[in-house]
Amino acid sequence: MNINNILFWLLLPYFILASSSSSSFCNHHDTSALLLFKNSFALNTSLQYYYGLASCSSKTESWKNGTDCCEWDGVTCDTISGHVIGLDLSCSNLQGQLHPNSTIFSLRHLQQLDLSYNDFSGSSLYSAIGDLVNLMHLNLSHTLLSGDIPSTISHLSKLRSLHLGGDYQSMMRVDPYTWNKLIQNATNLRELSLDFVDMSYIRESSLSLLTNLSSSLISLSLSFTELQGNLSSDILSLPNLQQLDLSFNKDLGGELPKSNWSTPLSYLDLSKTAFSGNISDSIAHLESLNEIYLGSCNFDGLIPSSLFNLTQFSFIDLSFNKLVGPIPYWCYSLPSLLWLDLNNNHLTGSIGEFSSYSLEFLSLSNNKLQGNFPNSIFELQNLTYLSLSSTDLSGHLDFHQFSKFKNLFYLELSHNSLLSINFDSIADYFLSPNLKYLNLSSCNINSFPKFIAPLEDLVALDLSHNSIRGSIPQWFHEKLLHSWKNISYIDLSFNKLQGDLPIPPNGIHYFLVSNNELTGNIPSAMCNASSLKILNLAHNNLTGPIPSAMCNASSLLILNLAQNNLTGHIPQCLGTFPSLWALDLQKNNLYGNIPANFSKGNALETIKLNGNQLDGQLPRCLAHCTNLEVLDLADNNIKDTFPHWLESLQELQVLSLRSNKFHGVITCFGAKHPFPRLRIFDVSNNSFSGSLPASYIKNFQGMMSVNDNQTGSKYMGNQYFYNDSVVVVMKGQYMELQRILTIFTTIDLSNNMFEGELLKVLGELHSLKGLNLSHNAITGTIPRSFGNLRNLEWLDLSWNQLKGEIPVSLINLNFLAVLNLSQNQFEGIIPTGGQFNTFGNDSYAGNPMLCGFPLSKSCNKDEDWPPHSTFHIEESGFGWKAVAVGYACGFLFGMLLGYNVFMTGKPQWLARLVGCVLN
Ligand SMILES: *[C@@H]1O[C@H](CO)[C@@H](O)[C@H](O)[C@H]1NC(C)=O
Ligand SMILES: *[C@@H]1O[C@H](CO)[C@@H](O)[C@H](O)[C@H]1NC(C)=O
Ligand SMILES: *[C@@H]1O[C@H](CO)[C@@H](O)[C@H](O)[C@H]1NC(C)=O
Ligand SMILES: *[C@@H]1O[C@H](CO)[C@@H](O)[C@H](O)[C@H]1NC(C)=O
Ligand SMILES: *[C@@H]1O[C@H](CO)[C@@H](O)[C@H](O)[C@H]1NC(C)=O
Ligand SMILES: *[C@@H]1O[C@H](CO)[C@@H](O)[C@H](O)[C@H]1NC(C)=O
Ligand SMILES: *[C@@H]1O[C@H](CO)[C@@H](O)[C@H](O)[C@H]1NC(C)=O
């Protein structure tokens, strides 16, 4: 809703009143219809808070039987007939159902009807609306109406303005039939606003009917309507169009006209759409253009210099595009520019000096801007919003200069690694008292900033990734408890804070203090924060139990208490939190059983309880976690048989039971497609026995398909607030993958008592990166099919009873970086070529009957091995050349270099890999 619209509706009663005389008396039928309408609703004076409006008045309170209805608040009558022709009950606190028999539909003379900003509690709009055929203005936006817009709305052929939907609580939908008829019949429509109405069924051809309204349409607003397809650029050529808002329809594309624009256009919002192409110079002909929002589209090319001629601009938003080059110089001098948003582009060069100081909103974040922080920014006295994070700006800056902005409510300077900001200052200074959002992540702050203390209205504070030392000052604890009533977001993580945990205030949603050195217990009072969505206290030194009061925080989405020193039992209630999405309690000292009340329909995607002292059996109700993707129970004392009852979990990708007391045979329970998406299967260091779990392995579909497009690989988890991590073991080295690549695929069955033959079917797991079957009692030979594991980067079969020759097909494994076949009974010649030229003696130790490079024991010269090996290579479609040039660093190892590597020594293979990747 733009300002003109609001003004129009505010002033409408005055226009109408001005033309009506006070001599009319209300028609009897209309009086009783209005009274019955009034009585069908309750009054709820808290609706204004819900809608965020300053104040609403209960207009119907002045409606009394026996008085002239033409005098009632919000009612307008025809001067001659006394019929009610206008009804404005916008923002009147009405609450209740709108019934199909509602008497409002009997006011047939109505020309204006405005019921916006009331609460009709999800009722539908009934077809009786089509009876009000004299309506010229209809506004039912922001009323919590739902359901289909009735087709009879097309009877309203006199409509000049129509407003439905309005906010995300509107659940209305329009079907193509109704839409087509409406647009064909209501040919006088000047304003059409259907924001948040579901229009996903409306096709391009139906949408283009709008051009039929070319002589009338002035304002069109269809944001958040799920429109799809390509919109013809004709819409931007409608001769009378002044305002167009199609924002937040990510599947709606189109291009801007090259010429022939709607000349009166003053407001254009295409943010978050798929509009693309160039912004043509001809845009400069739009002399009335005042606000332009083209953020998060696919526009490319230069920002047209012709925009300079549009000196009347107040709002420019070109954020999240691919716009390139320096910031156009005219941005600094537009005399009435209030809003400049160029964040998330590929802008280069330095920020120039401003010569016009009208700006109120400036965002240049996430660009490649260089050079000094321009001094003239501090002349922008009216600035309320300043975002300059993630740039390459350099030089020195005194933070106290920001106290010049007296009206600032948003300040973001995070992630400017080249910029040195001096936060110390001899004189005390005060930032704008209006400051609500302060984001100073990664700003090299090393003591707790005092300038926060006077800020009474803080909503969000981010001081993460600094080096703030020492305990949290008392004034900060006090502020949290007594002053900051509106605070919703606090991030103090990745600092060096010590001492007690601060207690977050009741209304807070995000409380992030992970990766500090905090000690002591988690206070019960902390759990009064019943609106908490995300609580992250991971990586501290907290001790004592998880307080049972944690059960008050039942709206949690993420609970991360990982890597502390917490003891005691896991509170049972955690399994019943309806929205909990990630539960991470790994690496504490928790003991006892795993909670046994995971409820049906829970939202859990990640459960990590590894690295504790949990014992007992696994609760069967874990099978209720049907959204589960990661289950990590490694390094506990759980004593049970294999949880085959988890095999029906369709989303499970990571299952780690490593280092527990699991035992028995692993067999499929009977699901047709057990564990269909599993990619990391780690049951190492247990006491499993029997043959290798063939019935599962042949069904691991998640490990069979190879996604060739590895550059587009993704990590699991919500990137911002939670990354799934998992520890895997490679050649005896623990590696923590801080984020799990969706292409990471491993099987680890090592250190158990598996016996029987090595399975051919393993060769079908084509996307496997790592296979560890070491320290078992596996017999037989390596199947040739292992040559099909083309993505394999490590293979450990050591300490088994394998025999026979090493199949030459293994030289097809171009990414194999680690091979361990030691302590078996292999015999014959070690294949040469490919990665086999890089393995050392260790790979083969304890196999007395092996010979050839790299072992010193040479093979019998008569042995006819080259043809033998060529045979295998050709069979698999590989020629010598391909093998010779093929060996390369594993993709995964390259990716791993960024992760924490926990090593006791510095193994050669790792050093070799590092060298390989760096070269
Ligand atoms: C209004 O008052 C009249 C006369 O007292 C009565 O007949 C009628 O039912 C009342 N109407 C309503 C809607 O209360
Ligand atoms: C309208 O219908 C509802 C239920 O459908 C009923 O409760 C109400 O009394 C009816 N109102 C009138 C005025 O008939
Ligand atoms: C178009 O409007 C006229 C006048 O209200 C009405 O009679 C007619 O039924 C409408 N047509 C459609 C298809 O709704
Ligand atoms: C800007 O306006 C000047 C004159 O006012 C005109 O000469 C020039 O061509 C215009 N530039 C563009 C790019 O439209
Ligand atoms: C700042 O805002 C005030 C009040 O709206 C206005 O009078 C003044 O001109 C503005 N300053 C600049 C430099 O635009
Ligand atoms: C946690 O406490 C232990 C024992 O007091 C200490 O050795 C360790 O350095 C502490 N860790 C952190 C992150 O403060
Ligand atoms: C963990 O807490 C126990 C007491 O509960 C203490 O003895 C131990 O030193 C702590 N460990 C660390 C690493 O802080």
Automatic annotation (TrEMBL):
Lineage: superkingdom: Eukaryota
PROSITE patterns recorded: LRR (PS51450)
Gene3D superfamilies, sorted: Ribonuclease Inhibitor (3.80.10.10)
Signal peptide: 1-18
Family matches, as InterPro entries: Leu-rich_rpt, Leu-rich_rpt_typical-subtyp, LRR_dom_sf, LRR_N_plant-typ, RLP23-like
Coiled coil residues, start to end: none
Keyword Calcium part of the UniProt annotation: no
SUPFAM superfamilies listed in its UniProt record: L domain-like (SSF52058), RNI-like (SSF52047)
Keyword entries, A-Z: Cell membrane, Glycoprotein, Leucine-rich repeat, Membrane, Receptor, Repeat, Signal, Transmembrane, Transmembrane helix
Keyword Manganese: no
One Gene Ontology CC term in the entry: plasma membrane
Membrane topology value: Single-pass type I membrane protein
Transmembrane region(s): 878-902
Subcellular location: Cell membrane
Name of one Pfam family that matches: LRR_8
PANTHER family reported in the protein's UniProt record: LEUCINE-RICH REPEAT RECEPTOR PROTEIN KINASE EMS1-LIKE-RELATED, LEUCINE-RICH REPEAT-CONTAINING N-TERMINAL PLANT-TYPE DOMAIN-CONTAINING PROTEIN
Family indicated by similarity: Belongs to the RLP family.
Name of this chain's protein: Leucine-rich repeat-containing N-terminal plant-type domain-containing protein
Biological source species: Glycine max
Upper lineage: Eukaryota, Viridiplantae, Streptophyta, Embryophyta, Tracheophyta
